[in-house]
Structure formats: structure tokens, C-alpha cells
Amino acid sequence: MPQLNPNPWFLTMLLSWFTYSLIIQPKLLSFTPTNSPSNKTLTTTKTTPWSWPWT
């Protein structure tokens, strides 16, 4: 069964993870989020119960 032979795909997997870890991930982590969760204020919403006609 060729699916169990890791020889042709193992190097591809390693290279893709190294590329992600060393090149792409630092570039993505350098961006700052535009909406910081710490600046948000908590708002409470008032809920009203539903009046069922058969109760």
C-alpha cells in the first residue's frame, strides 16, 4: 500500500512545516489586531421573557 510509505511525502511535510514556522508565522504574528478586546466595555442587555399564550 503506497499510503503507508512515508518516504516520498515526509520531506515535503518537513519542508512545508519549516517554511510555515520560520517564514510565514513571524510575518503573520507581526500584525497588530485592529480591535483589541481589552478596550471593549461590557454591556448588559435586558431580556424580556416570552409570553406564551397557552400558559
UniProtKB/TrEMBL annotation:
One GO CC annotation: proton-transporting ATP synthase complex
Biological source species: Pampusana salamonis (Thick-billed ground-dove)
Family annotation (InterPro entries): ATP8_metazoa, ATPase_protein_8
Subcellular location: Mitochondrion membrane
Superkingdom field: Eukaryota
Major subcellular location class: mitochondrion
Homology family: Belongs to the ATPase protein 8 family.
Keyword field contains Transport: yes
Transmembrane domains' residue ranges: 6-24
Topology class, membrane: Single-pass membrane protein
Coiled-coil residue windows: none
Gene Ontology biological process terms, A to Z: proton motive force-driven ATP synthesis
Keyword terms of this UniProt record: ATP synthesis, CF(0), Hydrogen ion transport, Ion transport, Membrane, Mitochondrion, Transmembrane, Transmembrane helix, Transport
Name used for this protein in its record: ATP synthase complex subunit 8
One MF term in the entry's GO annotations: proton transmembrane transporter activity
